[in-house]
Amino acid sequence: MPPIDDATRPRVAGSVELEPRQRAAGDHLRMVHDHFRRQLETLTRAVETLQDAAGDGAADGASEVEAVRAGIHGLAPSLTTQQVAGLCGQVCRFLTMHHTIEDQNMFPAVATIQAYAPVAARLAEEHLVVHAHLERVDDLAVAVRTDAGRIGELVAAVADLRADLESHFAYEETEMSEPLGLLGLGI
Ligand SMILES: [Fe+2]
Ligand SMILES: [Fe+2]
């Protein structure tokens, strides 16, 4: 699936002046996304640390990787391949839940405002792109448990997920604040 193309996105935001109390819904959406941003940052550090450890340990297998995991990045706690796989699975599950809620509740409601219907449709399409990234990350996290040599692929997959997800979050935050405020919708 090709990466998300910002140039083809419909843009509507900027037409409405919201009351302060109407901004709460958009602010909440941003807070939820910020939580995912932090999780993705942690996940990136974890897979990169594992990759460094694999390089140092001559990648003899998962046990070798775990044997040499010793605070490579200083700040990052070193996780075992099992723990990294668990973390990947957790992030993927929570993000899928977030998108399911948006698909089922937020987008149909927003689409009732005619001007915003194309934006809601576009955001729903982008969820399919993000979902393909999540499946790849999840599959590779499982693969790395038995084949430490695939850690480079997992690092790249997490980076690709992060790039498209950040682009999606930013677009969604910009475009959803006004309709959510107008509808008085929380997510
Ligand atoms: Fe979304
Ligand atoms: Fe979202």
Automatic annotation (TrEMBL):
Gene3D superfamilies: nmb1532 protein domain like. Residues 27-176 form the Hemerythrin-like domain. InterPro entries: Dimeric_xanthone_biosynth, Hemerythrin-like. It comes from the Bacteria. Transmembrane segments: none annotated. This is Hemerythrin domain-containing protein. It holds the Pfam family Hemerythrin. CDD domains: Hr-like.
